[in-house]
Task: structure prediction
Amino acid sequence: MNQLHIPLESTKLDNGLRVVISPDRTAPVATLGVYYNIGFRLEPRGRSGFAHLFEHMMFQGSEHAGKMMHIKLINSSGGVLNGSTHYDVTNYYESIPSNALERVLWLEADRMRALKVDDENLRNQRDVVKEEVRVNVLNQPYGGFPWLDLPPVAFRNWPNAHNFYGDFADLDAATLDDVQQFFYTYYSPSNAVLLMIGDVTPDEGFTLARRYFGSIPAGPPPPTADVSEASFEGLRRGEVEEKFGTLPAFAVGYRAPERRKPDWYALAMLDHALHGGRAGRVYRRLVLEQQIAVDTAGGIHYPVGDLFDYNGPTLLVSRVLHKPEYSSDQALEAYDAVIDAVCQQGIEQDELEQVKVKFRSEYVSSLEGGQGASIPRYGLMHYLACFTLFDNDPSLVNSILGGFLQVTREQVREAAQRYLDPKRRAIVFRQPTRTGVAA
Amino acid sequence: MMATIAMNDPFAQVPALGPERPVVWPARTHRKLANGLEIVLVESHTIPKFTGELYFRSGNASAVAQAPALAEITATVVRTGTEERSSRQIEEDLRRIGADIGTSAGADTSAIGFNGLVEFSLDLLKLVAELAQRASFRENEFERERRQMIEGLRIARTTPSFLANERMCRVLFGAHPYAIIAATESQVKEYRLAQLAEFYRAHYRPGNAVLIAVGDFAAPQMMEQIDRIFGSWKPAEVPGVPAVSLPRLRGRHVHLVHLAESVQTQVLVANHAITRKHPDWLRLALANSIYGGAFNSRLIMNIREQKGYTYSPRSSVHALRQYGYFTVNTAVRNDVVAATLTEIFYELDRMRSLAVAEDELSDARTYMSGVFSLGLATQDGLASQLSNVYLYDLPEDYVETLRQRVRALTAADVLAAARAYFDSANAQIIIVGDRRQIADQVGLFGQITEYDAEPN
Result:
């Protein structure tokens, strides 16, 4: 029960491309992904939002598949596709009937080998991305809260602290040269992993991977980057105006440990005890019992990532929307009482046991699920990619659970004291400019 | 020589699709207990979990005479306590067995959704049964949830997509209960706990319910378990939903919901359409896929990939139990609202006037049948496909035969569906944005009626 047995085979091509295959014949469909070891953390200075804009450009044409052909070829094979930009990885993926496997590999290899885009494509996608930012951030209640609000308050090093979706002026400044430069720097086979999950045999998958990806030149390794962050000293506070939403809100960020360090396992259990749904201490206390808050949520690397998909400084985040009749100070005080209790007493033994069962259950579901049911096993693909690119060990997907299930109460209490320090954290307040009348 | 080179270059041409592997739907166990509860089970051994829903064929539409969105607040309060367990105990018991429950209601249904580790299936199903039969409706839980709902509504009424959808349902459905998707704040304040308890007593009944479960279990044992847990549930007659006809909408009309300081405009174009039981359903679904349902559809290629007006345009066909509707939905920058509407109608009219070419048709058929088969691969995917069959009273072999029925569709089918349901001349245009920036543009497309974010 501490160890899963998901079948995995992996290899590395001569050009450095890693290939991971997880066969499963449940249905005649497959999910494929190419993950590049580059995300918005390392986009160029003066080019905030560029990694994501670049991701859009990868759908605009490659040498043998011009604009619109990529999308058309996947859809007309019965499949769906998308891409997404994260802190430390960018992915491109498809779910398809398995008879389209070779076609999809051809497309992915073609754009890894030779992106072919022009100024018109760049203008077009710059406009599309601006509407994306408007629909997700600028024209929504609590848009970007707190994923765009916290980093500039919590961090000092630009890679960790800038606007990841992009200032419009920076998006406007991006050129086709930037696109080609970014492509040559980061989109080489040795900086990527190819994943095939579902109705594919390892023999078939590896053969096709060699056929289409094998001849792509390895390219130079990307430059090393300094993403280090001095540890917090003192309380860092920020305020952001909330233009639409009616409730005041705040988010708190504590520095999280590196993945796979002993503290990481313990903090993950503590995080679940605090933020795990309606049984979690923060929601239970603030929403259900004291009824100061209307909604709470949180997690390690929350909300645009999770425990497994970061590879640099990040935060354990809590997010609280509270009733307007309570001041920010009152709401924060109530939140702090919850944090103080786990720092003083840790959590109960029974609570820890419950959390472990729930954690195991959610982990298993996250492997199978993804984006509704439209990308089967997106989660498995995603975790395999991170374990390959960050840890060089895809089999962690099977063994990682063990470390969480061994965590003790004492370790949880120690982690609470070490990480949930009220004097070393970042807080961002969202204050509505128009508040509803109290009921 | 040239030919040899071409053959050696793996990039020279697009690889053909391989032979299709058979798509086989897993066997289904379907049974009705003596008390009328319908049970549908499918084994899926991908992960050691199971997932499902206990659906009641009564939602907000069944309660409209009592109070708007009454089914929704009832479902919310159902999870907060039973005769045996307090709210806190329910949440901790769920965590103890690694399970989740979600109670919800829409226009046609109320549901208790569940998923958990199959090793604890007995405990989870017992809790589901408890929630379905012995919810306790405590005053303090109700009052908290009432306030939560009010705060949720205040935020929803600053959310463009919610405002567009709310206005659209009022326009399309008029006096029909489907017109109301959310209560107003004052209506929520008027709810009485007795109304919730009464809705629950009347509608949460086995003869009104279907229990769908998919997962890593043996169906015969699971059936036995469910029979033991739910067999003693008392049946009762359940009141039906009143049949009300829809308003006749003639001519384009613009419904402008003012949201001050919007930096983007939500555009929603809608028509009456059909239910899933209608013989034209798949024809319309295929036409929709070509028009604006798929990523490579005409509308998306036009207003996103060519013109860059928007990030997320999409057209959809929606089916409720009594009626259906067709929507085109997108959020665009304020200065291209008129340009966007022009393209939306241009593409609608092109679908209505010209038959699609054979290759575009064939691509769309493959897309629709291919995407459908993706649902086979996961427990959630199977559960959602089955829900459609049983909630909309579709034929027992609906999912199994869908792919072949899609493949039989012709260009004439698509044209006929577009002519019948892409009714551009009578389309209702719902706009959410800052009227000062967009009123001039939308006035070109029909008479404007303006609204505030508060309904009525």
User: Anything to note?
Assistant: Chain B has two domains: 28-230, 253-451. Residues 253-451 of chain B form a domain with the Cytochrome Bc1 Complex; Chain A, domain 1 fold (CATH 3.30.830.10). Chain B touches chain A through 85 residues (CB under 8 Å). Residues 1-6 of chain B have pLDDT under 50 and may be disordered.
